[in-house]
Amino acid sequence: MLTGTSPDAIKPSVDVCHEADPYCEVFQNGQPVVAPVCLHRDPEGAFRVLSPCGVCLERLAADGACVLVAIPQPAALDEVQWITLRAALPHFWMLAFPEELEGW
Fold first, then answer.
1. What is the Cα–Cα distance from 96 to 27, expressed in whole angstroms?
2. Looking at residue 4, what is its pLDDT?
3. Domains of the chain
């Protein structure tokens, strides 16, 4: 299990997401991404599950359509629901290039 964080930047447009840290670590070690989850904790200590952003979905696509991604349960934002990357990206733009896609 890997965790990540991101330093605050003066200019928000140069921020990197918290997921970039563990994503780079698995890439550096030649490991696949299996099931990422992003959690937000508010000042009172309550957690929320955050769905992966478009940039993270693009990064995860390199690990194949069967990677599991965490999204919040519709009725309980602090509970995880696992879906495949294929379900999260039903119209992935790279599907137009099937000869380039391994694992999709």
1. 25
2. 86
3. 12-90 (3.40.140.10)
Question: pTM here?
Answer: 0.82
Strand spans (E) along 1-104: 38-41, 47-50, 68-73, 76-84
- Residue-wise pLDDT tens digits, 39-91: 988 999 999 999 998 889 999 998 889 999 999 999 999 999 999 999 999 98
**For the CA atoms of the chain, what is the radius of gyration?**
15
What residue spans of the chain are helical by DSSP H?
20-28, 54-61, 85-88
Could you give the angle at which helices 20-28 and 54-61 cross, rounded to 10 degrees?
10
Q: Which tokens go with 93?
A: 């733009």
CA distance 86 to 24: 22
Report the 10 Å Cβ neighbour count for 81.
13
pLDDT at 102 over 80: no
* 3-class secondary structure, 38: strand
